[in-house]
Design brief:
Elements lengths: L1 E6 L4 H10 L3 H7 L3 E8 L2 E10 L4 E9 L8 H15 L4 E7 L3 H9 L3 E6 L2 H5 L5 E2 L2 E2 L3 E7 L1
Parallel strand pairs: 4-5
Antiparallel strand pairs: 1-2, 2-3, 3-4, 5-9, 6-9, 7-8
Length: 151
């Protein structure tokens, strides 16, 4: 059974999921303590995480979202994004954002299927802000793609 709970106690397992979505612990530490963190459990086993970060009283960002690799491709990511959208509405936000890299083709398609639209592209963001090169799907991750949805 799938359950989603708010959490503040981050274990090593939580951190492994956070770093699956963002390989820079330094970048994650910049927002994690100012965020609402939700863990996803399947039969009491941690299998996913979503982090909501308030930008303003009207806007929130899904700052981090990850599903353990053995659970990927089974619709849990979409359920988690839809949970984030629903939770943002409950919390009173009028707009939600999510960002990804230009090389994250599957994530980009998923976010668009969930109703997000591209609102901005930050050229060379990952080159300027990450020490190590990031490669996915045979593509170097250079640009940050920001997507938004009006709630």
């Amino acid at each position: 059974m799938l359950t989603i709970n708010k959490t503040k106690n981050l274990t090593n397992k939580h951190w492994s999921l956070l770093l699956l979505a963002d390989p820079s612990k330094k970048m994650v530490e910049m927002y994690i303590h100012k965020s609402k963190i939700y863990e996803v459990l399947e039969d009491n086993s941690l299998m996913g995480i979503i982090v909501l970060f308030e930008i303003s009283k009207e806007e929130v960002e899904i700052k981090n979202i990850a599903i353990e690799s053995s659970f990927q491709g089974r619709g849990f990511g979409k359920k988690l994004i839809n949970f984030g959208i629903k939770e943002a509405k409950i919390l009173g936000y009028s707009k939600i954002f999510i960002c990804t890299g230009n090389s994250s083709t599957l994530q980009l398609a998923l976010y668009k299927k969930c109703g997000f639209q591209i609102s901005n592209i930050f050229k060379d963001f990952f080159i300027k802000n990450y020490k190590d090169e990031i490669w996915e799907n045979g593509i170097q991750c250079k640009d940050l793609i920001k997507l938004e949805q009006v709630l």
